[in-house]
């Protein structure tokens, strides 16, 4: 293989393929011509497939590096705000003060949702999982913003980005309020993005919620750390749904559905449930044993990642924030004790070392969210609020690059052609 050329030989046939060089990361073999030669590539779960070209986020899983538009996640988490990160993801550069103020004002001024949408909630059972409600209501936004929306128009796409970014915390907080039978709390424009979300979650018409700056910062950090993560399952779902030119609110609803699973965004909820089940440090060995048992489907939630084969850089920041929050609230959470001991044991266990299973972002986020008073069934909803900007940035980039409908092929292993003989009596 020359530096920028590869040759694939199958029996007597050779196919020349270009090798593309990214700015960072692994080289990519361009196999687009293979289909016309009568061959497909087989890669279930896309472990070796680049599905698109992107300039938004870079991950080096072996070295624990995550960059958004080139900026390291550690710096963004400590030196920026979530809205600043949103601007960076969406437009590619850090905003000037003037650009930031304008962006913030626009996002803040569009947080209310159409009053008719509040009635949709009442069709759901009160005990519905909030992710089911979030998925349904976000999809329903397509019914409110469809006819005048031209996805090929960059201005329309920009307006869509603002709408989604602004309204997602409002819809998410409504999912919570509905589940506990409290009236919806309307957004407050003098609060920050994170502060406003906490206000909509915890204020009631009878009592103001005073936003604690340490908790507000922790919420903002959780949003930053979940903002984007390259071509993960939900982002790829949004791209796939959007590749047909579909309504973006419906595409984001598809992303929310994909995020819900325990192998993806549902892991934070599953991780907290696991820590509660482990309960005390003495029970940890039993759970480690189960995680290593091939005949047991149990996995240590919050451990392992498809891309990171090193410490998840987001987990490092999350760990610090977790300590800050517990200190501020003067909480001595026994779950944190279990989490830290579990981390220590797993990091020293040959099974986890060999398989490069390190704590991921969800390992600590559940403890922080619990300390903030957020119930565990809302954890993935919070992930969805944060990831909305990543989904929109990728959806937008896909449109900018020119739409090509996603249409994978398959390795067919079903029947050969055979004759159909019906055994059903016809009337
Ligand atoms: N506990 C025990 N064993 C594990 C774990 C775990 N958490 N994760 C992977 N393994 C083992 C797995 O059994 C397999 O062993 P073997 O090679 O002997 O069959 C090996 O490690 C490789 O696992 P895999 O499932 O083939 O790896 P994957 O890249 O397909 O899966 C993952 C990645 C995140 C789905 C998986 O590590 C997992 O299920 N982790 C727990 C769930 C979790 O915390 N998910 C959150 C991911 S971070 C948030 C996000 O980005 O959405």
TrEMBL record:
Pfam family, one: Citrate_synt
Protein name (database record): Citrate synthase
Entries under CDD domains matching the protein: EcCS_like
GO MF terms held by the record: citrate synthase activity
Known catalytic reactions: oxaloacetate + acetyl-CoA + H2O = citrate + CoA + H(+)
Family: Belongs to the citrate synthase family.
Statement: the UniProt record of this protein carries the keyword Transferase: yes
Pathway(s) it belongs to: Carbohydrate metabolism; tricarboxylic acid cycle; isocitrate from oxaloacetate: step 1/2
Alphabetically ordered keywords of this record: Acyltransferase, Transferase, Tricarboxylic acid cycle
